[in-house]
Protein 1
Amino acid sequence: MMHPRAESDQNTTPFDAVVCDIDGCLCDENGGAFDLTSLAQIREHNERAISAGDRPIVTVCTGRPIGFAEAMTRLIGNTRLPAIGEMGVWLHHPHNAQSELDPAITTEHLESVLGLENHFHEVLRHEGVTMQPGKAASVTLWHEDTEHLKLRVFPSVREICEANGWPFRVSMSWYYINCDLAHISKASGIARFKEITGFSSDRLAGIGDTTSDLAIREQVSFFACPANALDEVKDVADYVASKPEAEGVVEILSMISEMSASDRGEEVH
Ligand SMILES: [Mg+2]
């Protein structure tokens, strides 16, 4: 088991880690340019967390492919804690730059993924549907006509999964159909993270903005949202930032750091 912090540091901060979603939290949903000013502040937070041990390290938990999660992890200077990618399919370990598939994903599960990918190549691709590249054990589909995706493609994908006995949880977000293995989620990813780090729920904070982040909420003792979060996510948050996206995350981290300092009776720098 890996214990990234020394035992003596365990109780000097209210949390050991902050598990943060990426899209809508560290960057925008629509492919916009990175807010480097805010991301640099998050990196400074992490550098201090690692060197002084006086605040929790921020890591990421995302539905994006693991390569994107690795890049964001390096950008925000988390060199210690595992990152969770592809909705819990992967953990990426910064200390040895290796990514690890959840051992609960079997060869049989991967055959179901191949079956659905083949259905995409044989049928859906010719109907104007695209598949997000870079995923290993989940399938994410998009069509420029969101109504068509919702009313035609979504039910047909559910049907083909049922007919073939492929064990997917098929869900619809704003612009995508997400097909995730039913036993894998952000929650199962965080459970593995806890097993490896030895951190318990009461030592974790989380940040998220949409419904898949409700699984983060379940696994942490303190949950916060940027201002752009969906109402149903804000409703279960302990704190909602006044600012959106990465600026909101900076605001949340500064609030968490104040909690750390007030526990120790110190001024915040
Ligand atoms: Mg999000």
Protein 2
Amino acid sequence: MGACLALALQRSGLAVALVDAQAPQPVSVSAGADWDTRVYAISPGNAAFLESLGVWRRLDSQRVQRVESMIIAGDRPAGRLSFSAYDAGLRELAFIVESGALQQALRQAIAETGQALPSFNESAISLQVDADCARLELAGGRLLQARLVVGTDGGDSWVRQAAGLEARVTDYRQTGVVANFETAENHRAAAYQWFRDDGVLALLPLPGRRVSMVWSTAAEHAQALLALPAEALAGNVTEASAGVLGMLRLITPAAGFPLRLAHVPKLVAPRVALAGDAAHNVHPLAGQGVNLGFRDVRELVRVLSARAPGQDCGDRPLLRRYERARREDIITMELGTDGLQKLFAARPVWISGARNSGMAAVDRLPFLKTLLIRHAAA
Ligand SMILES: Cc1cc2nc3c(=O)[nH]c(=O)nc-3n(C[C@H](O)[C@H](O)[C@H](O)COP(=O)(O)OP(=O)(O)OC[C@H]3O[C@@H](n4cnc5c(N)ncnc54)[C@H](O)[C@@H]3O)c2cc1C
């Protein structure tokens, strides 16, 4: 998120420096190379934004998959919901993109702007703010001064803590198990999701006969899945997905990510703003974490670009405008993903019946479905 924000702010005419504790990892994104286990479902609105920054065109189109439909199944046969891009008047619901390829495209776009964007692969270790500027000290002893520091440093944001901004964290005690598989059947550009007793299983289409799995499940079950040999894991996922794509074959090692909800009531402090996971952490069941982050970036760039001539970028009313503009989208996604997670984690039979008939009811309401799709596509 930091690289995207830095590029967008630099293009808007601001002098920017990028600090990331982690050096960029070299990635192989040629057609024959292994597939990245971390993939994102990027909304069409964010893809258009990345295109406006010259990033999207740097992705190898052979490794980007359009999602044209989505099929969601509850834990009873009656619970079924499907979305189609065509029905909502869209070309696609999302694009599946590898995380490494996206980061590489961002770095290439930054390198090719022709303007210097100072980058430091060091941790930030101290933040001082006064009336005129913020001072950020890096682990190597360097001191950076800026009108504004934007924390895009992830769910455990150091900037958030240094600025005294609170995060209310709920641990889901779940892990997102991710892995890629080859499929026997064609996925036909469809994404699948199953709300099961043991969590939420999603299969996202990748180019060719491949899918990327995210199985959000109790930490102990996740440990058991991660410990399985390749064939047994593929067998488990084939069975859990009711064989809709035929027999699966594991093509990348599985990895696990702990899942939590973090609500950050205030996104700004004097000369500090938060964006990306530093500003919100949501359950991956809607595939919206990175999309929320890109929408933060779009809004912050919009607000800063619209400031009055000579107005300070760290001006409090300006930052408050950004915070207010982002509130509704973030809260909708936090409540939506948390509500769905809780609804499907609940055991009582009457709740199970209600949630499945609720899905079937939504499925019969084309207007509501179009509204939901259009929100997710932004
Ligand atoms: C299993 C799973 C599947 C997901 N699938 C999707 C999906 O399909 N679609 C989607 O939209 N989202 C998805 N998400 C969410 C998405 O992964 C996150 O929202 C996104 O990665 C957050 O990006 P970020 O840049 O804000 O934070 P991060 O990716 O965490 O990056 C933070 C950066 O800050 C740096 N940093 C940290 N501390 C410091 C410091 N003190 N000084 C300097 N640098 C520092 C780190 O080195 C790192 O580079 C998924 C999440 C999970 C767990």
Protein 3
Amino acid sequence: MAVTTLKRQSNISDAEWETRCNLAALYRILDKLRMTDLIYTHMSARVPGEPGHFLINRYGEFFNEITASSLVKMDYDGNVIGETGNFNDAGFTIHSGVLMARPDANCVMHLHTRSSVAVSAQKCGLRPISQQSLLVLGSLGYHDYDVASGNLDEREVLGRDCAKADCIILRNHGLLTIGKSIQETFKKMYFLETACQIQTAAGDGELIEVPEPVLSKSIARYKAKFDDGTYGDLEWEGIIRTLDREGADYRN
Ligand SMILES: [Zn+2]
């Protein structure tokens, strides 16, 4: 369906359409960065001006196929709003749980990259061995593995674990990041995932951890940047330029 046709027929607001385009762009850049797991991970964004509604990928689409109009609009009860569309049950549980628990958040990302699953299985958790790790350690949390996040009880537990952290390592499972905007959430995920890649590449030998007091000062300084209101904006402009220059059809 053509973009203008979908917008006209569905009475999609300009703000929702912009969010749809940015969320579709998020899937596309994740595909380029190979942060994918076939069809089994998901990103969501709140619909501006529609409390209780959020957008998520249609189950079955690869990240390089997702477009603004193919995203599914849902509510917290699991109802699809407007256009029909399949969604992943675990995706609904995770994203509705986090968005309900975090009214300040507008975007949630969830990935299963190999490096992140590897670090999620390490008892030590994310170690302060790289600058990338310092960027996220100030807002890092953990969530224990559950039965594939498939029931609503899990929403409450996950919501509690996400209450005070924006970067979550899901034990034996992967990563989750939370932010006020798509670009902010992406930047947190980029550094969290990169920190996991570095930790797995470094191996389990004797490693140099950033010592105190530099460690605490660095973590506090980087954490403060999360709240400046522009976190990730500059990088996001470059991502959009890249996708547009390559002719990616994510705006369809
Ligand atoms: Zn998962």
